[in-house]
């Protein structure tokens, strides 16, 4: 590749997603990523970088899977595309729906397909409100979500999400979305007894329901572990208590499984780790390991029964809902996860290994806490050990400074405020986990004099 020319074209014609376009311009264009294999990406300048983010929390089976390319190729030759608008479906679409239903298990029996996680949450938004109208409770329109949640970049996704800096852009949220505290022990719950903090977080949900009026609340939505919010792992007992509050007031429980689904927490879905039974779940990313865009909403049998009993079109769907080529790739991806037993491996082997490796960083003078569940983790950077005081008075935050050093040292990670988060492919080896944690440690040490200067 002529990297200089690609960078020039990038700058001249491309607006990359979620970017500070002034910074991209100063850098002379985006980093051009040209190849990837296993857990590594390679850029046009020849740097080989350990992908500690699995792309964007999605390449669960790792890069370079010829089987997935073959599945797409074969499906494209046979039937590249057809829609599901005309009382029609295609073989891979139907088989994938059945496969996902098998993995969801129990009362989650059906799926509705879309292309992205954001669209999945838009589908949740409309389906939930439609459901309550069918049920004769049209006032149940309000969604309760958590601050710092990420549910996507569409208008409904940003509104359901709890990122204040995203709300500002586009004058969101739209009416009918309320936010409550995120269950963040190292943040809102710092120094508090975990059980007391859990009860306080759950009480905030109940208080919000009572404030809005239970008869007006449609659903509570949350990621089992908040990803883009900073890998927020809730305190023990949080999710069952949230579920109990939803049941008490007859409110639907929605889990956004876009990151947690397909093995990230050591189960097929994150809600299974927490032993709860959501009424709807959104999934994307790991469904196809990011090889092609596809997402789905898992729907409980009682909602399907309502749709079937009352009838009438649910006038919602996308050109690419149930896209056969994406579905064929997703089916093959699930087959790989099964064959290589990546879920058990994450739960029993690599997940605990990552936790132990991250714990080694606890002695580092900049580290306030490390935490992980399955193969998603975070390292909190603090100014003073034993506190959660940050470096916020610095120009730029500590997180982005450490992240940039990590990338220079050959590790792609993300900074979320003053934490470094990681989410490697589920195929990651012990040696690669050691490399990942080793680079974070080295980068923290290199960053310390800069941060303390
Ligand atoms: N929900 C969660 C929990 C996510 O992490 C994301 C993306 O990061 C989304 C929804 C949005 O998915 P997409 O970017 O595919 O629209």
Describe the sheet with the most strands.
7 strands, mixed
State Rg: 22 Å
Helix content: 40-55%
The mean pLDDT is 97
Q: For this entry, what is the oligomeric state of its chains?
A: single chain
Classify the secondary structure makeup into a structural class: alpha/beta
Count of DSSP H/I helices: 16
Each distinct ligand: pyridoxal-5'-phosphate
Form type: globular
Uncertain runs: none
Neighbour order of strands in the largest sheet: 4-10-9-8-7-5-6
N/C terminus separation: 40 Å
Bin the strand percentage.
15-25%
In total, the number of strands is 15
Structure description:
- The chain is built from 16 helices and 15 strands.
- Strands 4-10-9-8-7-5-6 form a seven-stranded mixed beta sheet, with helices on both faces. The protein has a four-stranded mixed beta sheet with strand order 1-2-3-13.
- Helix 10 links the parallel strand 7 (217-222) and strand 8 (252-256).
- Helix 4 (66-78) runs antiparallel to helix 13.
- It starts with a helix and ends with a helix.
- With 453 residues, it is of the alpha/beta class.
- The protein has helices at 3-13, 21-27, 54-57, 66-78, 91-104, 117-134, 155-160, 164-168, 194-212, 238-248, 270-274, 301-310, 324-339, 342-359, 398-408, 430-452; strands at residues 33-37, 40-43, 48-51, 108-114, 142-146, 177-180, 217-222, 252-256, 280-283, 295-300, 367-373, 376-381, 411-412, 414-416, 419-422.
- The mean pLDDT is 97.
- The protein is globular and about 65 Å long.
- Pyridoxal-5'-phosphate binds next to helix 6.
